[in-house]
Amino acid sequence: MNFLKRKQIIVLSLVLMLLVAGYLQYNYNKSSQYSEDDSAQIGDAVYVDNQDASDKENIDTAAAGDEEKTATASKEANTFFAQAKMDRDVTRDKDIETMKSIYQDDMASKDAKSKAYEKMMKIVETSQKETNIETLIKEKGFNDVVALFSDDGSVDVVVKAPAISKADWAKIADIVSRQGNVPFDKIVIKNMF
Description:
Layout: H1 2-33, H2 50-104, H3 110-139, E1 145-149, E2 155-160, H4 166-180, E3 187-192
Parallel strand pairs: 2-3
Antiparallel strand pairs: 1-2
Helix pairs in contact: 2-3, 3-4
């Protein structure tokens, strides 16, 4: 019996909290819709200036054109980043499969197996470095990034941004240098938007 009362008190408390939240939300929406300057009531006649409307339409059209250009650029950039990552993963998977088949081949020499194993470990290590670099650069506020290690020890980084400031370049280069153990002169940073 005591258990039921306790349960009822909890349910009643939750219902009261919901009512209070609903009342506060209603009052908040009511106050945000009408400012104190709006003294017009619903149904009152309101003077509408045609000049302001046509200026607003021009501004809206120009803004929509800019957004469309930005959206187009971003769409191309999104395609680039997705394609680059997919190509990198496919190539890496093929390389690992090839090295794995050499490593598991009974007819392969011990030296070939050893080199295949080392190559697989290098691919995994490089992949981990690229992932770390991309994650840390995204954490700095960039929407997307692709980091690619090349065979000569350099790293290409492409970030999704309209421009890269010197401060951003320094942050990205620092991350690449620390995570990839790459000197600054071997780091190439580009932007794409």
